[in-house]
Amino acid sequence: MKIYIKYMVSLRCKMMVKAELKKLGLHYVIVDLGMVEVLEDITAEQRCQLKKNLAKSGLELLDDQQAILVEKIKGVITEMIHYSDEVPKVNYSDFISEKLGYDYTYLANVFSELKGITIQQFIIINKIERAKELILYDQLNLTETAFLLHYSSVAHLSNQFKKVTGLTPSYFKELGKKRKGNLENL
């Protein structure tokens, strides 16, 4: 049986969900971003308890099919940008459509209707969040970051970064270093 969970976007969320399933005596086959597959059928009481326990951690059990689809879209995008070092061989719209088995126009319409932003805007926000992580942790230089996140150039990344954050990547990095220095002096 598959269960869909809203706001489940990190490895920490996955660990928390696994712990909640274990408390309820449920055995999972897969715990992925936004989706869990359990071996047993879940009773109404277990579902209610799981919903309550997840809510305490800011997660939400989904029942609405369109909301489930939106979470699947978000999961594919999050996985693609934050947890994969492999460049998709096709453009994002084809990749998402292929992964979920739906026409992209349909996915885009459902996503926009429920989230109030486009899939493209959601992708950009996630790419900038990933860029911020890479910049703060000094893992890659800006050229490598631009390549990893599929930007055509460093200038393109920098322009989008500034549009979203209001800061240039280099100024953001400088602020991060100052903050880290201040914390180390405590």
Descriptive keywords:
Arc Repressor Mutant, subunit A, single chain, alpha+beta, 186 residues, 2 domains, 4-stranded antiparallel beta sheet, Alpha-Beta Plaits
What does this structure look like?
The chain has 186 residues and is an alpha+beta fold. The chain folds into 2 domains: 1-63, 2-Layer Sandwich (Alpha-Beta Plaits), CATH 3.30.70.100; 65-186, Homeodomain-like (Arc Repressor Mutant, subunit A, Orthogonal Bundle), CATH 1.10.10. It contains 9 helices and 4 strands. It has a 4-stranded antiparallel β-sheet with strand order 2-3-1-4, with helices on both faces. A hairpin with a 2-residue loop joins strand 2 and strand 3 (35-38). The longest helix is centred in the middle third of the chain and has 18 residues, at 65-82. The mean pLDDT is 89.
- The class by helix and strand makeup works out as alpha+beta
Terminal CA distance reads: 50 Å
Tally of discrete structural domains:
2
Sketch the major β-sheet. Answer: 4 strands, antiparallel
Strand runs, count: 4
Tell me the overall shape. globular
Name of the level-1 CATH class of the largest domain: Mainly Alpha
Helix content: 55-70%
Q: What name is given to the CATH topology of the largest domain?
A: Arc Repressor Mutant, subunit A
Give a brief outline of the structure.
This protein is α+β, with helices and mostly antiparallel strands and 186 residues long. The protein has helices spanning 11-23, 44-56, 65-82, 92-100, 104-115, 119-136, 142-148, 154-165, 169-184; strands at residues 2-6, 28-32, 35-38, 60-61.
